[in-house]
Design a protein that fits this description.
46% strand; Jelly Rolls; Thrombin, subunit H; six-stranded mixed sheet; 751 residues; Methylamine Dehydrogenase, Chain H; six-stranded antiparallel sheet; mainly beta; single chain
Length: 751
């Protein structure tokens, strides 16, 4: 019976598909997990518990919503809540309101059913939005509370091909309001708003159709003086309009605002004039085509493949239903011009109708069936764009089909994806470190527990990127849609710094800091007088505690406590010190707190059982009633929200036997050594079996205080006997942090 003591030092192989459970021959088998739920595998190798989400607001009317990022700068970034015919705005992890309590709104033409097809691109404080049923729009920002959505007034185009038939157009004048008369049936009632370009002699001019009269006549307004009033067969009708439809995707590339895919021309790309984003003039007035003029290109292919997205990089990547293409100049290192544009097919994966994500030189996109993710990047060896599959090892996680993706570079390098069933999965992605690790993130238990993520977006935040979510839940029998954001990475300053740890979903925080100074007459003792800088006390405060967090000379965070025993005035109370204050110096405003015995403002979780972290210690769960919960003990800092379990289960351990593999043999794990970082509260055992709680409390810790966060090694007797499977499961289901740096099982194999 050989005994082995392997060490699992990294978990950034991610969660693997059941189809790979037998692939012990693969190098990354030892780094992979059978389960990785609500843990984030980091590029460094640890598995750290996902922070909880913060509740911000309900979506407008609790209706279907989509999130759109708006990044003016890293310091001024917004999330737009798009709902039925309205936009609302969020920044600094809150909703923008003016006046307070009234959300800032903009009216839009987009119905709830049309939100999924919205696409966008941004330049400075202008966001360009497209939808095939609507004229492109511009969303502009002049301040946090001032936004405007207007139709894009495209100048001089874009146009269909030059007329090659015998039909002529005759303008009634060269300027102003005119009548255009066709020699044969040409116009349709939906042509109002469409452009038309005419040539007389050497001069091109253009007009905008304003009204339909008949199939041979329309009214128009001249926008660039026409060259004459004679009948001409040299004319071009606008490519966009209510009749031919509007573009379905948009991006910027080489200083051109570029659109693609109308219902009539699904394979066509239109680029604006260089540096003049809203001008689509195909030539100068004299017919000269300059390098900076607008360009039009239609992909020639053996199938009609609608363009679903464009992504600008070294070349313009183009995703269609049947394959991926690139657009670039015919000469190396030249810019694209109307005369040098070349489009080449690169791969034949086929893409879904959703925007891709560009990460450095690579681009990640969802395949047409929405179950696979591919990476498109240039290969010097092949001198071509290649597209390997990123879901090969974890295809089970995306079986419910990807709905939307977003990239969060800081702090974990994660591509997030929400699924059709409301699930949320992540891909920790660092190609240069060969890290491609999938993990599932069950927000408040995930779809099986009634929490469904239906939209997401990422914007820059204060030191890290912010993941924003729309989460559907049934509260009190009514479907609600919550706007939430993932809390920041938990990184404690000291082992005692845990009061602000957020590990509950749809959570809110109580921080009962008092906005005035406080001076104690003594640092310890009974009958100590506390004098506030302004009137904050009331007779009902007798029985409450005064608390102050401070750092001792050794760097540890301490909490001074005093029980209020008598009220003298709005500025003076007396109390008995329970835990000494640092000194009698005046405490600054918001550096001290009063305790509460109930938490209110929880109406968004009415009737739900919630977890509570009270002053850094786990509190018994409570059910929200009347928008509040009662507490067992006085608290000054609390985190309250829906609980979730983080689960890390290893693959079936493979470390050989006397005559070959250990797979299929009876094995027993006797002990497991676990290397933790900043952890408090966890259990260890086997799935569907015994689980033992790992003890973190030391004898020197006060019984009325939470133990400090633990960093180091714990050795735990494994609560299972002989089995043909040797797997270790770590679970954290308290509202506390947990980071696993390594596992060291000690096991015996029965030969």
């Amino acid at each position: 019976m050989p005994r082995v003591t392997p060490i699992l030092t990294t978990f950034n192989g991610g969660e693997w598909s059941p189809q790979l459970y037998g692939r012990v021959d693969l190098d990354k088998y030892g780094n992979a997990c059978r389960q990785l739920d609500n843990f984030i595998p980091t590029a460094q190798g640890t598995a750290t518990r996902r922070p909880g989400t913060r509740f911000v607001a309900n979506a407008r009317n609790d209706g279907a919503a989509r999130l759109i990022p708006f990044e003016f700068s890293t310091a001024q970034a917004y999330v737009i809540e798009a709902t039925d015919l309205r936009f609302r705005f969020y920044m600094n992890r809150g909703r923008i309101e003016s006046p307070p309590g009234t959300p800032v709104e903009v009216t839009t033409p987009y119905t709830a059913a049309q939100l999924a097809q919205l696409k966008w691109t941004q330049s400075a404080d202008t966001l360009y939005l497209v939808h095939p049923a609507h004229q492109p729009r511009k969303l502009t920002r002049t301040s946090h509370t001032s936004w405007a959505l207007t139709a894009l007034d495209a100048l001089d185009g874009p146009y269909l091909d030059l007329n090659t038939g015998a039909t002529t157009l005759t303008p009634s004048a060269t300027t102003g309001s005119i009548t255009l008369t066709a020699s044969a049936s040409l116009f349709q009632p939906a042509d109002a708003g469409r452009r038309v370009r005419l040539r007389h002699g050497a001069t091109w001019g253009w007009a905008e159709i304003t009204a339909y009269t008949s199939a041979t006549q329309v009214a128009a307004t001249v926008r660039a003086t026409l060259g004459g009033t004679a009948a001409t067969a040299q004319w071009r009708l606008g490519a966009w309009g209510a009749g031919p439809g509007w573009p379905a995707c948009v991006t910027f590339h080489e200083e051109r605002l570029t659109f693609a895919n109308t219902p009539v021309q699904p394979q066509t790309i239109w680029g604006s004039m260089s540096g003049d984003y809203e001008n689509f003039a195909p030539s100068q007035a004299d017919g000269t085509v300059g390098d900076d003029n607008a360009l039009t290109f239609t992909i020639s292919d053996d199938r009609v493949n609608a363009i679903h997205w464009m992504s600008a990089g070294r070349v313009l990547a183009i995703g269609t239903a049947g394959g991926e293409f690139t657009m670039q100049a015919s000469s190396l290192n030249e810019v694209v011009t109307p005369s040098t544009v070349v489009v080449r097919r690169e791969t034949t994966r086929g893409v879904a109708d959703m925007m891709p994500v560009r990460i450095g030189p690579a681009m990640l996109f969802v395949q047409r069936a929405r179950r696979k993710l591919y990476e498109m990047a240039y290969s010097y060896e092949a001198d071509a764009q290649l597209a390997p599959e990123m879901t090969l090892f974890a295809g089970h996680l995306t079986r419910e089909r990807i709905r939307e993706i977003a990239w969060q570079a800081e702090p974990w390098n994660i591509l997030w994806a929400c699924l059709d069933d409301g699930g949320l999965v992540g891909l920790t992605y660092m190609r240069d470190q060969q890290v491609v690790a999938w993990h599932r993130q069950s927000i408040a238990g995930g779809p099986s527990a009634g929490s469904r993520v239906v939209a997401l977006a990422v914007i820059p935040g204060d030191g890290q990127d912010e993941l924003w979510l729309v989460v559907e839940r049934t509260i009190g029998g009514v479907l609600r849609r919550h706007i939430e954001h993932l809390s920041y990475e938990f990184w404690p300053a000291t082992p005692d710094d845990k009061e602000f740890a957020v590990f509950a979903d749809a959570s809110l925080q109580l921080d009962n800091a008092i906005a005035t100074t406080l001076t104690p007459s003594a640092a310890s003792g009974t009958g100590v007088t506390f004098t506030a800088g302004s009137g904050v006390f009331a007779p009902s405060d007798v029985g409450r505690e005064i608390r102050r967090r401070w750092r001792d000379p050794g760097g540890a965070i301490r909490t001074a406590r005093a029980l209020i025993t008598a009220y003298s005035s709005a500025t003076v109370v007396q109390g008995d010190v329970i835990v000494s204050f640092a000194d009698t110096a005046t405490i600054a405003a918001k550096e001290w707190r009063l305790t509460v015995t109930a938490l209110a403002g929880l109406g968004h979780l009415e009737g739900r059982s919630v977890q509570i972290l009270a002053d850094g210690a786990a509190h018994p769960d409570r059910v929200v009633s009347g928008g509040q919960v009662a507490l067992d003990r006085p608290t000054s800092i609390a985190q309250v929200g829906l609980g979730y379990a983080s689960r890390l289960e290893t693959m079936d351990l493979e470390h050989g036997a006397m005559d070959g593999t250990a797979q299929g043999r009876r094995r027993r794990i006797h002990q497991v050594g676990i290397k933790f970082w900043s952890t408090l509260g966890a259990r260890l055992g086997v799935a569907d079996g015994s689980m033992d709680t790992i003890e973190f409390r030391a004898g020197a810790t006060r019984m009325d205080e939470s133990p400090p966060l633990f960093t180091g090694d714990r050795t735990v007797a494994f609560p299972a006997g002989w089995s043909d499977q040797a797997r270790v499961l770590v679970v954290q289901d308290q509202p506390l942090p947990c980071t696993v740096a390594a596992l060291v099982p000690r096991m015996t194999t029965n030969e």
